[in-house]
From TrEMBL:
Protein name: Glucokinase
SUPFAM superfamilies linked: Actin-like ATPase domain
Gene3D superfamilies in the cross-refs: 3.30.420.40
Assigned protein family: Belongs to the ROK (NagC/XylR) family.
Secretion signal span: none
Organism of this sequence: Rugosimonospora africana
Domain of life: Bacteria
Length: 343
């Protein structure tokens, strides 16, 4: 699709792939699906930046847009990183190569492309997309909180249509909020540990890692004849959702605990930001409709709200999950470019 007006590009940088999209000044996306190229992040910053340049050139060629029409690039990456896109000095799962520590990813890409780059972490980008899809033209009048279950638990807080980034850029790290465990865990179920070093935070339950490290090992002791007892831990954790879709008792116990964890997380959010909508994303969004609706209903049932809040809030799933990061990054770039140009 060819457009004659200005555009922005959204780049979603992941552990194995970069997903790219193009958004025109009217707010229309010029691609309907995933456009992926290898991210090569494990090979270090220099290689990864070049990979993003190729992703940019590829999406421009695909959409027939000249580079001089690009107002800005929206970049999102997994955290932890600063508000300006400087990777944590401790590195992270995706950025384990030692040269990533303290690396200015946003600045390096901007210098390489010669185009302004606007940075968000991937949870914030997906949260922004969910917010704008749900509220549409009224997005600036609303607030929302999103929790996105993946290998970890990402998320984002949107206030008046704007991402809340915080002083160090780490607002919305919902996975590392400690939640009450009484009544969530079974009698004798160990307190779950998170890879971040905390115990009993939301990610220790509501994440694929939480399933592998904490939930599945416990529930297999309660279902010793389950077929997953013979499957290696990492592979078994990825199979739990499929079992849940079929009504498997062990899997439903695991996902019930995950939904309870999100409900308790949202209960905390209700008293801090009082958002108008709560969004849930992750693998559960890609599950069978009956299962994802059950999961969302269970989250809702475990979110403690005042009656005044219940009358006005909404619960919904993050749409277009595979594309939400790139699209949210593009929305952030479009918004920022509008500020630059005074539109």
């Amino acid at each position: 699709m060819v457009t004659s007006g200005p555009v922005v590009i959204g780049l979603d940088n992941g552990g194995t792939a970069n997903n790219a999209t193009v958004l025109d000044s009217s707010g229309s996306f010029l691609v309907d699906g995933l456009v992926e190229t290898p991210s090569l992040v494990r090979e270090g910053p220099a290689v990864a930046v070049e990979a993003l340049v190729r992703a940019t050139d590829n999406i421009l060629e695909l959409t027939g847009v000249a580079r001089d029409r690009v107002l800005a690039i929206g970049l999102d990456t997994p955290g932890p990183a600063s508000a300006d896109g400087v990777i944590s000095s401790n590195g992270s799962t995706n950025f384990a190569h030692p040269e990533w520590r303290g690396y200015d990813f946003r600045g390096a890409l901007e210098e390489k492309l010669g185009i302004p780059v606007v940075y968000n972490n991937d949870g914030n980008a997906a949260a922004l997309y969910a917010h704008f899809v749900y509220f549409g033209a009224a997005a600036a009048d609303h607030s929302s909180v999103s929790a996105i279950i993946g290998t970890g638990l990402g998320g984002g807080v949107i206030e008046s249509g704007q991402v809340v980034r915080g002083a160090a850029g780490m607002a919305g790290e919902l996975g590392h909020v400690t939640i009450p465990m009484h009544g969530l865990l079974e009698d004798g179920q160990p307190l779950p540990d998170c890879n971040c070093g905390l115990s009993g935070d939301a990610e220790s339950v509501a994440s694929l890692t939480g399933i592998e490290k904490n939930l599945l090992p416990y529930w297999l002791t309660r279902f010793p004849d389950h077929e997953l007892t013979t499957v290696p831990g990492g592979k078994a954790a990825k199979l739990v959702r499929g079992h849940g879709e079929k009504g498997d008792a062990l899997a439903l116990k695991i996902f019930e605990q995950q939904a309870m964890a999100l409900g308790r997380l949202f209960s905390i959010a209700a008293n801090f930001t009082d958002p108008g909508a709560y969004f849930v994303g992750g693998g559960v969004v890609e599950a069978a409709p009956h299962f994802r609706e059950w999961f969302l209903d269970t989250v809702r049932a475990n979110t403690v709200l005042r009656e005044e809040q219940r009358r006005v809030v909404s619960f919904a799933l993050v749409p277009d999950l595979d594309m939400a990061g790139a699209r949210g990054a593009a929305l952030a770039a479009l918004e920022t470019s509008a500020e630059w140009t005074g539109r």
